[in-house]
UniProtKB/TrEMBL annotation:
Signal peptide: none
Ranges of residues in domain Amidase: 25-444
Entry superkingdom: Bacteria
Organism placement in taxonomy: Bacteria, Bacillati, Actinomycetota, Actinomycetes, Kitasatosporales
Listed Pfam families: Amidase (PF01425)
InterPro entries: Amidase (IPR000120), Amidase_CS (IPR020556), Amidase_dom (IPR023631), AS_sf (IPR036928)
Designated name of the protein: Asp-tRNA(Asn)/Glu-tRNA(Gln) amidotransferase GatCAB subunit A
Example GO molecular function: transferase activity
Keyword Transferase in record: yes
Sorted UniProt keywords: Transferase
């Protein structure tokens, strides 16, 4: 196995045991970037010299006995809404053409302190306001969408051009592209990972989290990210920093909620079948399956858009009025729509969120987590605007992709997307696990147990 193919945990073990040097790993990943990124376009900027310099420093530190932990010497990509001192943060927009970060974001600083090596900044849908990331091609089929808005981050991990990446998730933007590209995407509890220095889409819905090849890898990255930062008003104090799941796949006694409503409505038959097989696998590992009713389903879409649209417009108010022509049409239309929304609609969305959180808390008293599809369909063809369901219902692609992921953003609950197979066209399918607030350890334990019971996954075929 070539170094770029290694999972984070495998690479970390090899580096710690001195079987692999950070320089060898960085060189392998950068060679992979040169080989496949021209047709995948995961990266907006590749910081090759910076990466090689950091890898040499990591190698020297480790040789001198200054090993910092499992991220030391590991190549990473950061979504291009995350500030890194001295590097551009374009957020995928001409509005930010001349922007260069003066300081590290909190998450970039924490990863740097852990010894991670920056390979580059990954493409995002403009200002993270979309579900396709049109600049980037799917890692399994370059004629299909990568998903968004963290499309570049997901494709980089799936293709082996980064060992791990960070994305942001406002309505599913970590989990959607992770599912569509066959990798692990983790949206932690709202406030667990600080957002200082990260370009905002919607302050009350935004999350930062890892995209990795395995669940164990996601746990290792989360441990470096979690923790209070007073510069983020929503920041929480982490209950602990050890998230790595223990070995073993015994889920005896765990109660897994299986939705009777909403999450399996208007879902592709192959997606439903793969997710139900994965849920059955959890039962075979000892979990107890419990049918559950998802609360307030008729309000989910209105609440998600009712919160996100006016908050995004407020953030962009000045530039929308001074340089509207610099925005892409799809994003500009959404921002302009936000100017037309009455304050009463926003307040009603806030009230609905409060009620939704209360009802989900009641649901999660009866089960430890909920298992469901991450997205209702696999990656659509580039340029496709709608999906037609079996009953003739027509749904916009973005609406379809956000529909099943939005509840975790509205409520702030942690949500983990894990690959659970492929459809007949060979496109990846993801299962989503939703847990209690600060219930990251449970989700990681269950996702890891499922993963350990399956054959090892390979890198994406289009790469």
């Amino acid at each position: 196995m070539r170094p770029y193919e290694l999972s984070l945990s495998a690479a970390a073990d090899a580096i710690r045991a001195r079987r692999l040097s950070p320089v060898e790993l960085a060189d392998s990943v950068l060679e992979r970037v040169e080989q496949v990124d021209p047709h995948l376009r995961a990266y907006v900027t590749v910081t090759a010299e910076r990466a090689r310099r950091a890898a040499r420093e990591a190698e020297n530190d480790i040789a001198a006995g200054r090993y910092r932990g499992p991220l030391h010497g590991i190549p990473m990509g950061l979504k291009d809404v995350i500030d890194v001192a001295g590097e551009a943060t374009s957020a995928g927009s001409r509005v930010r053409a001349d922007h260069r970060a003066e300081a590290d974001s909190t998450v970039a600083a924490r990863l740097s302190a852990a010894g991670a090596v920056l390979v580059g900044k990954t493409h995002t849908h403009e200002f993270a306001y979309g579900l396709t990331t049109p600049q980037t091609n799917n890692a399994w089929d370059t004629g299909r969408v990568a998903g968004g808005s963290s499309g570049g981050s997901s494709v980089a991990v799936a293709a082996g051009t980064a060992t791990f990446t960070l994305g942001t998730d406002t309505g599913g933007s970590i989990r959607v592209p992770a599912a569509l590209n066959g990798v692990v995407g983790f949206k932690p509890t709202y406030g667990l990972v600080p957002r200082h220095g990260v370009t905002s889409l919607s302050w009350s819905l935004d999350h930062v989290g890892p995209i990795t090849r395995t669940v164990e890898d996601a746990a290792l990255v989360l441990a470096a990210l979690a923790g209070h930062d007073p510069r983020d008003p929503a920041s929480l104090t982490a209950p602990g920093t050890e998230y790595r799941p223990v070995a073993g796949a015994d889920l005896t006694g765990l109660r897994v909620g299986v939705p009777r409503t909403y999450f399996f409505d208007h879902v592709d038959a192959e997606v439903e079948a793969a997710v139900r097989r994965a849920i059955d696998r959890l039962r075979a590992l000892g979990a107890h399956l419990v049918d559950v009713e998802i609360p307030m389903t008729r309000y989910i879409r209105a609440t998600q858009w009712g919160l996100m649209v006016p908050e995004a417009t407020a953030y962009h108010e000045t530039s929308l009025r001074t340089v509207p022509e610099l925005y892409q049409a799809d994003v500009r239309i959404l921002l302009e729509a936000g100017e037309l929304m009455p304050a009463g609609d926003y307040l009603r969305a806030q009230r609905a969120r409060t009620l939704m959180r209360r009802e989900w808390a009641r649901l999660l008293r009866d089960v430890d987590l909920v298992a469901a599809p991450t997205v209702p369909a696999t990656a659509v063809k580039a340029g496709q605007e709608t999906i037609t369901w079996a009953d003739g219902t027509v749904e916009g692609v973005s609406d379809a992709y956000v529909r099943l992921s939005a509840p975790a953003n509205i409520t702030g609950l942690p949500s983990l997307s894990v690959p659970v197979g492929h459809d007949a066209a060979g496109l990846p399918i993801g299962m989503q696990l939703l847990g209690r607030p600060l219930g990251e350890k449970v989700l990681l334990r269950v996702g890891h147990a499922y993963e350990q019971s399956q054959p090892a996954r390979q890198l994406a075929r289009a790469a």
